[in-house]
Amino acid sequence: MAQKPKVQAALKAMAELGINEKQVKPVLKRLFKLFDKNWELIEAENYRVLIDAIFDEEENEVVEEKKNCKNYDEEDMEEEPQVHHEASRTSKRLHSSGHESSSQKKKSTNADLESDMEEELPLPHQRERPLKRLRKSHEGQVSPFPNSCNPMLGDTSSVRPKVEKDGLLGTRSPQQLRDITRSPESRAELQQPISPHIGNKNKGKQPVMSKPLAPHGVRFKELVVAEPGIILLPKQNVNTHQLLKPKDEPFTDDMAQDEVPIAAILPGPSSEENPILQDGATVEQNDQEHVASQEKESTTNGIQASYNEGNTNSELATIEEESPSNLEVASSPLGEDGSISVAPNLDALRKTTAWDAGGGTKELLCMQSFSLNGSVSIEHPTVVTAPQVPRLPLSLNGFGECREACGRTASNGFSGVNKEGGLEDSRDLVVVQQCDLTTDDLRAYHDINDITKGAERVTIPWVNEMNSECPLSFFYISRSLVFRDADVNFCLSGIGDGDCCSTCLGDCLSVPARCACACQTGGEFAYTPEGLVKDDFLEECISMTRNPQQHHPLYCKSCPLERVKNDDCLEPCKGHSRRKFIKECWSKCGCVIQCGNRVVQRGINCKLQVFFTSEGKGWGLRTLEDLPKGAFVCEYVGEVLTSKELQERNIQSARSGKRPYPVLLDANWGLKAVLRNEEALCLDATKYGNVARFINHRCLDANLVEIPVEVETPDHCYYHIAFFTTRKVDALEELNWDYGIDFDDHDHPVKVFQCRCGSKFCRNMKRSNRSRSASIAA
Ligand SMILES: C[S@@+](CC[C@H](N)C(=O)[O-])C[C@H]1O[C@@H](n2cnc3c(N)ncnc32)[C@H](O)[C@@H]1O
């Protein structure tokens, strides 16, 4: 039977949209019935009603299909309510007098149409769904962010392309629609799966839209709006350096570890500025980026603890001293005073009065900053008063190994304590009254297997075969740290061509030509290929130490030691021993790290042990292996102080009765016309030091000699003091060096003590004998 012209026209119009007769006829039949054979309504707006109805039909079929399908995926589950909802809305608009189900479609009152349309309909799943594709294709050109089901965005129906409500399709002519359908983009779109299967990854949380290409080749359909202002791209292997990761980035559980979403963060208010301590102190971070990448922030009980973990490129740290009124951080290892000391956060301590110190216990705050040249600055272990026991920065492990937490304490005076009341890091420290520390506490404080707490390449155990005493607490550092005012600059620009061998390659020691570094030590390197100081070089160093007067001591015009005394009359300089420097290759040299002219900078390499001496000298250091003559043992590490700062500490220690452990860096004093106080430096290992702080004094014939070693700074104001064996030393021999003490000089920074070195050359013994003779004579 020939079709009626109007039916033919409708079918043709739909065909032009890519909708085949089989889809059109049943819908048309229903509309014909619904509109009481009123073709005008059907034909209006280029068959808008028909198109919408076909679309609705298709959507309903999809819904039914899904209901029948037990295995449809999560995305479908998410999409279903929305589709259903929209279909029913359309249906309501169309069906002013009720909704007809598809089961009713065979009840037609129009015989012609009915006969035209009484063809076998394909099963729903066999049908194409051009309109859905068409709509998806079309939606893609409307808005990149239709997102009505994103709970984070609330009701976004206003931005969603509303095909039905806004008559989006209907506002376009069939030609326009045809253009859309036939455009290459649309065809490509049509070849894609209708439902992109990222639903499993998103778990249906975010809508996924099929869109034109977004910048960087990412399809908009792959964009996921996770939060306002944050768009997550699909998981893919990316370089994590490219990650811009918001604090609360909604990572999902199912992400593989090597798969991370790229998060594009739209500008928003910065949430975290410089942390402000509750007591009002701020943490200074000169190098924000550096700190940001290195610093860990943890907040517990409202307290922020900041600590730097891992290496930095810094070479020297600055430590500022507490004011004279501040409490002492560490006391003499001999335990000669009862000052407040620093102990680790140990279970043992928690039960002691240390934890109950309560009202008025002084807290130490340490501010850490990073200078532009990368050096770490531990500024001001400030003492504040707070009701409970604070924590302290723990051991400073030297150049760039500032691992200590800068204990920022809060009003409760407690930081870094985990939920269970446990301590987050066993290396963390608390301030306790030293007199409250039991032997057990101290035993627990110092790892008996390694007093360095891992700061050195080797482990250094401690042992006490004499009594039950333990070494007192101090901060173990493997490299010296500037306390505050010392003028120490590790500037590469400060190293001239004559101070480095930038043209060298490989191992300088194996090259016959004298490089610039060799020239610094008279054209010969100080070291043998075995890493020992050459004999003649060593002997000269020993001689200079033992017989300073024969080597023309240096006298300052204005000695910094005298200057800082603030006496009315400036006393003349008492003289400084002349020294021979070792010059090691360093960062500006072209040689390899394994170069034989780099010994001290590699750190301790022999087996050492801290032990309790039997002669009443307290703790000492010994070797556990035979050491050849000229072997490097360790360097003297401590806080780098100016002569003025040393003077201030001496005044303090005189009051407290504490013995400081300073060593002057005076090898160039007297060579320069007038040294500024900031250039006149010393090392103080009282609070911060390495294993060298346990080396006892021996008059004259010590088995170690200290040799100045230039590594980073050519100006010889700051340098390393390295200990080398003066002879072969047997295993278990105590190591000692001559402090250079004048036992008659009670003004000397190194406080005199009753010497028990046992040397036949003991100067103290001679003095004692002199005194005895004098008293006998009297
Ligand atoms: C740098 S510390 C050496 C380690 C110290 N023995 C200890 O127990 O920590 C210097 C102190 O050790 C003691 N000392 C060093 N050499 C000594 C000696 N020859 N005779 C007596 N006491 C000595 C003195 O108390 C001195 O102030």
TrEMBL record:
<dbReference type="InterPro" id="IPR001214">
    <property type="entry name" value="SET_dom"/>
</dbReference>
<dbReference type="InterPro" id="IPR046341">
    <property type="entry name" value="SET_dom_sf"/>
</dbReference>
<keyword id="KW-0808">Transferase</keyword>
<feature type="region of interest" description="Disordered">
    <location>
        <begin position="284"/>
        <end position="308"/>
    </location>
</feature>
<dbReference type="Pfam" id="PF00856">
    <property type="entry name" value="SET"/>
</dbReference>
<keyword id="KW-0158">Chromosome</keyword>
<dbReference type="InterPro" id="IPR025776">
    <property type="entry name" value="SUVR4/1/2"/>
</dbReference>
<dbReference type="GO" id="GO:0042054">
    <property type="term" value="F:histone methyltransferase activity"/>
</dbReference>
<protein>
    <submittedName>
        <fullName>Probable inactive histone-lysine N-methyltransferase SUVR2 isoform X2</fullName>
    </submittedName>
</protein>
<keyword id="KW-0479">Metal-binding</keyword>
<dbReference type="InterPro" id="IPR018848">
    <property type="entry name" value="WIYLD_domain"/>
</dbReference>
<dbReference type="GO" id="GO:0008270">
    <property type="term" value="F:zinc ion binding"/>
</dbReference>
<feature type="region of interest" description="Disordered">
    <location>
        <begin position="62"/>
        <end position="211"/>
    </location>
</feature>
<dbReference type="GO" id="GO:0005694">
    <property type="term" value="C:chromosome"/>
</dbReference>
<feature type="compositionally biased region" description="Basic and acidic residues">
    <location>
        <begin position="179"/>
        <end position="188"/>
    </location>
</feature>
<feature type="domain" description="SET">
    <location>
        <begin position="606"/>
        <end position="740"/>
    </location>
</feature>
<dbReference type="Pfam" id="PF10440">
    <property type="entry name" value="WIYLD"/>
</dbReference>
<keyword id="KW-0862">Zinc</keyword>
<feature type="compositionally biased region" description="Basic and acidic residues">
    <location>
        <begin position="63"/>
        <end position="72"/>
    </location>
</feature>
<dbReference type="Pfam" id="PF05033">
    <property type="entry name" value="Pre-SET"/>
</dbReference>
<keyword id="KW-0539">Nucleus</keyword>
<feature type="compositionally biased region" description="Polar residues">
    <location>
        <begin position="299"/>
        <end position="308"/>
    </location>
</feature>
<dbReference type="InterPro" id="IPR043017">
    <property type="entry name" value="WIYLD_dom_sf"/>
</dbReference>
<dbReference type="InterPro" id="IPR007728">
    <property type="entry name" value="Pre-SET_dom"/>
</dbReference>
<feature type="compositionally biased region" description="Basic and acidic residues">
    <location>
        <begin position="287"/>
        <end position="298"/>
    </location>
</feature>
<feature type="compositionally biased region" description="Polar residues">
    <location>
        <begin position="144"/>
        <end position="159"/>
    </location>
</feature>
<dbReference type="GO" id="GO:0005634">
    <property type="term" value="C:nucleus"/>
</dbReference>
